[in-house]
Amino acid sequence: MTESVLDYMTRLGRAARQASRVLARASTAQKNHALQAAADALDASRVELVAANQLDLAAGRGNGLEPAMLDRLALTPKVIDSMIEGLRQVATLPDPIGEIQGMRYLPSGIQVGKMRVPLGVIGIIYESRPNVTIDAASLCLKSGNATILRGGSEAIHSNQAIARCIQAGLAAAGLPASAVQVVETTDRAAVGALITLPEFVDVIVPRGGKGLIERVSREAKVPVIKHLDGVCHVYVDSAADLDKAIRICDNSKTQRYSPCNTMETLLVHADIAARLLPALAAIYRDKGVELRGDAQTRSLLGGDVLEASEDDWYAEYNAPILAIRVVDALDAAIEHINTYGSQHTDAIVTENFSDARRFLTEVDSSSVMVNASTRFADGFEYGLGAEIGISTDKLHARGPVGLLGLTSEKYVVFGDGHVRT
């Protein structure tokens, strides 16, 4: 009898749960050996990786995938190099597992502290980019978690080829193959099954478009680490250094248009708008950025600035489009961000310490910045080595999720025959 998708996913889940118990007690040296051996296997399998990737690219062209999607799908020599380097970098990161902090004696004589432990089994659902297979597997492995990886159907051959390299690394370190499992079916029912197996899966991380993340958030019976939108703001305060403001506002928008940490709305204090906006608009126009503004912005910058609608303040464009609003005070900027933002990344440009502190305190986002580009909101740039995604949730992990975000804590107690009286 043919195995159903639910039975198949349950089998993967049961194997992952068993593997997670082995990984939880694996030594740092063992995990690092697996990562380094997987990197060696990738390096030795370049021909096989490219051949598998060509199958996916050919199918993608046949199915009418857009050039941008094909670009994300391609395993170029540079992408393979970066995957190898990523594995080696994660191997050099400090291992958080087993670390005990805050040990203290209590009046009863016992010692109490907290030990960092893995989450257990992490399910990761992602689209397009096969290099995510390596990013996710390496971080889960180093943090002592088993993982079930469900990549997009368009990358099925590439992901399976990468998985074989990871399996070689696990085998070299004496770790179970089920510590990292790539879902082999392209049936969409696999996602529905994975997110409803709380007995085997502890956390789900969706990485992909808004539709995928909304579906996972709506249907999951397992906790989800995610962000839906990246509606990021830069507010230029009346006390801003204008040279800094121009550099930051330019970089926040134009360094790359598609990432979730790119600025989508620029807020400018009315006292400096006439000095700042024309200079910035010239830069944006030169780079082909379409501007949409409120009445004050349009009166300052001229007729080619489109009228911003209410929807523009909520928009994540992922494109060379920018909404601009002139505000009368810091209060109005904070109110705008907390009303229209997505709690992802927001920045203030100011030389006023009090304004900076208020912004940091009152803007309710996972990353809040002073005098820096929003494009820094990234695991690598934060010194995490890598990230599995960005979370705008408030429980467990918030902001870029690196090794620590894939762990939890448990209380540990030391006594010497102590009993409670």
UniProtKB/TrEMBL annotation:
GO terms for cellular component: cytoplasm. It comes from the Bacteria. Its main location: cytoplasm. Pathway: Amino-acid biosynthesis; L-proline biosynthesis; L-glutamate 5-semialdehyde from L-glutamate: step 2/2. It catalyses: L-glutamate 5-semialdehyde + phosphate + NADP(+) = L-glutamyl 5-phosphate + NADPH + H(+). Residues 14-284 form the Aldehyde dehydrogenase domain. GO terms for molecular function: glutamate-5-semialdehyde dehydrogenase activity; NADP binding. Its EC number is 1.2.1.41. GO terms for biological process: L-proline biosynthetic process. Keywords: Amino-acid biosynthesis, Cytoplasm, NADP, Oxidoreductase, Proline biosynthesis. It is found in: Cytoplasm. Belongs to the gamma-glutamyl phosphate reductase family. NCBIfam families: PRK00197.1 (NF001221), proA (TIGR00407). Catalyzes the NADPH-dependent reduction of L-glutamate 5-phosphate into L-glutamate 5-semialdehyde and phosphate. The product spontaneously undergoes cyclization to form 1-pyrroline-5-carboxylate. This is Gamma-glutamyl phosphate reductase. It comes from Phytopseudomonas flavescens. The gene is proA.
